[in-house]
């Protein structure tokens, strides 16, 4: 029996149709949304009945007053607050937020108590002197009360920023000190992989590193429990559409982390669109994305509350005590939408799990995946071992826009190894160096029409120069630098409208003039059971020499002998091409990542090439000691 009509279809046939959207399928709706952005975003506003103190006036210019990138002006004159879009759901029964700790401890905040708890914390922030435009910071594990702290900050029109407690005090301060927060939310510590990490001393040290020594609020203290024991209705401050909601930080591996500022209105519209129209989230859903406060997916997960869904957070290691941990959580909490990473799905497969047979996952409708491209064989694994009823949504976006540019869309066919659609309102194209749109060929990912959730700007970037340099100052082959967003990914847009992400364009493998994406190689190599992870680099040497080594980490008990090396080479040659086969395969003690899981291809390539001007912040790396190991491998390489 067919299920209910996806929300994007309802939107297309009602609100969007009133604004001139053509009939037909998703492709026609997408084309209309990027050809007529003002009409599309107004239709979205009306479809979700966005709450505002002052709504948009009539006319396209009241939606998009200036479409120039960077600097597009959205909804001038509108005043609203992110929190108001959530408070409309507080009459619902059941849980708004569920928190699960690694040891199984469960906390629940009901919809009926959400407003009172947020109001109580917001009143405490006011008592501590926080005003509209001030900053409030979090140094926290992924617990339910962290979301309350953010919502209370938003209520005041103050600006939120946070990082996980896995950061050392200096690493956290490199981000949060830029904001000069008035208040710091923290906790005693967290459990990870069976261990308790006491963070009280680190919190004290962080306070000394933050300008003005902000007030401290401990979420697991008696003082905090006393605050939330006396609920009050929140006083919500209406702010301009582009008023800063939060500051997210770039990985900060090379130089000072960049503070990326997003506005209240842009986030509300973008997250309603992505979560409801594409993710199909609604009031019957339970939304769990395994994440941390340092990663933009924590911010995106809150979109579940905008849709009236229950949001689940988890503080702990996703594979503790074993690879089945999160699958058990899905059953226990009756999760309908589960967000994870390719690494977690790969670990589940290599542990020979059969989650669909081992757990009752009948309510699970979608598995989302991000962080890196999801290999085609993991789509197949989900279908075979989780359930044919579960759709896979591989998404691609970023901290930059705190959403996805493309990914799964409810009701649309899923092709293994591909992102199903470009999201509505996202004018994403693959461009050649000559700025020619490409179909079924690899090119630079560009966005040619502004989106409301593009950054308001960067923190402490008054003239906008850092912001322009990050996305807009790329010089194309014809010598121009047009006003388009260049994201830094290689992408193929297929003739059916789906996408394939090939990896970062600034970490391109370019052997003998042939461009190759590292993600294509990882998909093949990491499918081999003996390999836990791959890391391929293209390193320029003297006199035009080029070295393409592949570093691998191996499963316990496995060694990189000639047989395994031949297996790896054969798999790459057969699945990709002979030119993709690396020059050397080297067993490594680990692969360096940012703290949000991105492989550090660009800086490590430069370091191995012998560049001495690479400013690499060890506080932003999951295992900084690995960098010297790779530096030594580069120094030892004999260029032929």
Task: Specify the CATH class of the domain at 508-636.
Answer: Alpha Beta
CATH architecture of the domain at 508-636: 2-Layer Sandwich
Structural class: alpha/beta
Q: Tell me the span between the first and last alpha carbons.
A: 65 Å
Strand order of the largest sheet: 5-4-16-15-17-18-19
Helix content: 25-40%
Task: Count all strands and give the number.
Answer: 34
The CATH topology of the domain at 508-636: GMP Synthetase, Chain A, domain 3
Q: Give the biggest beta sheet.
A: 7 strands, mixed
Tally of alpha and pi helices: 22
CATH superfamily of the domain at 508-636: ANL, C-terminal domain
Mean pLDDT, rounded to whole units? 93
Shape: globular
Query: What fraction of the residues are assigned to beta strands by DSSP?
Result: 15-25%
- For the CA atoms, what is the radius of gyration? 24 Å
Low-confidence stretches: none
């Amino acid at each position: 029996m067919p299920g209910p009509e996806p929300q994007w279809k309802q939107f297309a046939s009602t609100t969007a149709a009133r604004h001139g959207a053509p009939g037909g399928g998703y492709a026609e709706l997408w084309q209309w949304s990027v050809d007529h952005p003002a009409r599309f975003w107004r239709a979205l506003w009306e479809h979700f009945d966005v709450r505002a103190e002052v709504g948009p006036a009539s006319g396209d210019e009241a939606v998009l007053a200036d479409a120039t990138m960077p600097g597009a002006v959205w909804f001038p004159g509108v005043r609203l607050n992110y929190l108001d879009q959530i408070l409309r759901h507080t009459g619902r029964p059941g849980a708004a937020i569920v928190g699960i700790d690694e040891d199984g401890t469960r906390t629940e905040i009901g919809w009926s108590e959400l407003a009172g708890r947020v109001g109580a914390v917001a009143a405490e922030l006011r008592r501590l002197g926080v005003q509209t435009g001030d900053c409030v910071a979090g140094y926290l594990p992924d617990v339910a009360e962290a979301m309350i702290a953010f919502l209370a900050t938003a209520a005041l029109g103050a600006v939120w920023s946070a990082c996980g407690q896995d950061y050392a005090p200096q690493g956290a301060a490199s981000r949060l000190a830029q904001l000069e927060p008035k208040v710091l939310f923290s906790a005693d510590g967290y459990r990870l992989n069976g261990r308790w990490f006491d963070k009280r001393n680190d919190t004290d040290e962080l306070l000394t590193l933050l300008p003005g020594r902000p007030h401290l609020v401990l979420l697991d203290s008696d003082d905090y429990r006393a605050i939330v024991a006396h609920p009050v209705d929140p006083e919500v401050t209406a702010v301009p559409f582009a008023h800063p909601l939060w500051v997210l930080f770039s990985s900060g591996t090379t130089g000072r982390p960049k503070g990326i500022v997003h506005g209240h209105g842009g986030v509300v519209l973008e997250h309603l669109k992505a979560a409801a129209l594409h993710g199909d989230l609604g009031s019957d859903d339970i939304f769990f994305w395994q994440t941390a406060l340092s990663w933009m997916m924590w911010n995106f997960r809150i979109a579940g509350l905008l849709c009236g869904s229950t949001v689940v957070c988890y503080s702990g290691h996703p594979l503790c005590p074993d690879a089945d941990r999160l699958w058990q959580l899905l059953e226990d909490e009756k999760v309908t939408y589960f967000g994870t990473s390719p690494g977690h799905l790969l670990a589940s497969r290599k542990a020979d799990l059969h989650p669909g047979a081992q757990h009752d996952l009948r309510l699970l409708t979608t598995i989302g995946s991000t962080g890196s491209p999801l290999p085609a064989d993991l789509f197949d694994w989900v279908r075979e071992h989780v359930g044919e009823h579960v759709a896979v949504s591989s998404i691609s976006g970023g901290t930059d826009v705190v959403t996805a540019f493309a990914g799964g869309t409810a009701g649309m066919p899923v092709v293994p190894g591909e992102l199903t659609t470009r999201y509505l309102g996202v004018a994403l194209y693959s461009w050649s160096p000559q700025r020619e749109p490409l179909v079924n060929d690899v090119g630079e990912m560009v966005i040619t029409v502004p989106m409301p959730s593009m950054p308001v700007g960067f923190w402490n970037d008054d003239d906008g120069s850092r912001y322009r340099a990050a996305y807009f100052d790329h010089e194309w082959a014809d010598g121009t630098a047009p006003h388009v967003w260049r994201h830094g990914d290689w992408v193929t847009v297929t003739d059916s409208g789906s996408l394939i992400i090939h990896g970062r364009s600034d970490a391109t493998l370019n052997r003998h003039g042939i461009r190759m994406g590292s993600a294509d190689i990882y998909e093949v190599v990491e499918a081999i059971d003996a390999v836990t992870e791959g890391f391929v680099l293209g390193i320029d040497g003297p006199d035009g020499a080029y070295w393409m080594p592949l570093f691998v980490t191996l499963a316990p008990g496995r060694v990189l002998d000639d047989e395994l090396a031949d297996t790896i080479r054969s798999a790459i040659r057969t699945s990709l091409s002979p030119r993709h086969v690396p020059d050397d395969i080297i067993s490594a003690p680990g692969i360096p990542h940012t703290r949000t899981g991105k492989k550090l291809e660009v800086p490590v390539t430069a370091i191995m090439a012998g560049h001495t001007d690479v400013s690499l912040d060890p506080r932003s790396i999951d295992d900084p000691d690995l960098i010297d190991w790779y530096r030594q491998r580069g120094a030892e390489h004999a260029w032929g």
